[in-house]
Amino acid sequence: MRSFATQTSTECPACHRTFDATIWLVVDAAERPDLLARVRDDTLHRLTCPHCGQPAGEADAPLLIYRPDAEPRLIFSPAQQTSTEQDREHAAMLVAHLRDVLGEGWRDEWVEGMLMVPRLLLPAALSDDPEAALRRMAEETQQALEHLREEDPEAYQQLEKAARAMQAAERAARLLAQLEEAEDKERFLRQHLDEFDDEVLAALGALAQAAAELGEEEAAQGIAAVAAAIEALRLEQNPTAREMVEAMVGDGDLAMHLQAFITAETWAESRRIVEAHPELLTDEADALLGQLIEAACTQGDENGVRLLEEHRTLLRRCREVGVEE
């Protein structure tokens, strides 16, 4: 049996009796389609007391899904209350278990292509139409919010924020998929620039951070590059912000290097500029950025303020811990 579970003793919060709960850690989609269905329904790790029949909470456990008839073969979903290091240890442990079980049928290249998916997005990732699944999740969340608004306004505000983030994640995923298929990517970004609003940019940042934490450096850099390109196009199409940046050129080479740093298309390019021009880490450069931010505030340019503050924060971080960090 390739699917694997562990037993844990837990106490029912309703009747306070103890029972042994089965926690599935590896699911073979072909061997146990019933377990895969529970993953899709987000019920695999929900516990029910066998004594009183009441819900007994949900196990926070990692999950490795093996799909012998689909790509990618492996999907790993970390537990939700663990560190990045713990997630890596759990993934390695479950992969080792599956490798031992499969024996000669195992292929090392599966690990290289293993997809890591946060638990919240796992049902969508396993759907035949992930984009449609994300839309359904957003719609269901919105319906629940409408009901909660009358029952608990404070909780409603918290969940409304979560719902907006989920909707933004769905839009970000759709735009990234369309961008991937576009032959002329710069043209696509220019044509759809208005769709990359602040919420979508925030979602891109969260996706890039999540990918980096899961060790998906290439994916993280790709998403971050898209966000940086959007910020550069925004700056390019904002006459006020562009004029403010160009006006600094009169202040000498420092201003020119600062302009190049702000308009760099990727964070990697920004880092190279800082390494080549350490004068960007001086008080003078910080003061110039402060003037830009003040001017953008005066013009009511919220996007420009956010862009400049992000770059100012990055430079200050480099001053504190060094460019390599």
Could you characterize what this model shows?
The chain has helices at residues 33-40, 84-102, 109-112, 122-125, 130-151, 153-181, 185-191, 198-213, 217-237, 239-247, 253-263, 267-276, 283-298, 302-321; strands at residues 4-11, 18-28, 46-48, 55-58, 63-66, 74-77, 115-116. By secondary structure, it is α/β, with parallel strands linked by helices. It folds into three domains: 4-125, no CATH class; 127-237, no CATH class; 238-325. The strands form two sheets. The chain has a five-stranded mixed β-sheet, sandwiched between helices. It has a two-stranded antiparallel sheet with strand order 3-4. Helix 5 (130-151) packs antiparallel against helix 6 (153-181) and helix 11 (253-263) runs antiparallel to helix 12 (267-276). The longest helix is centred in the middle third of the chain and has 29 residues, at 153-181. It is globular.
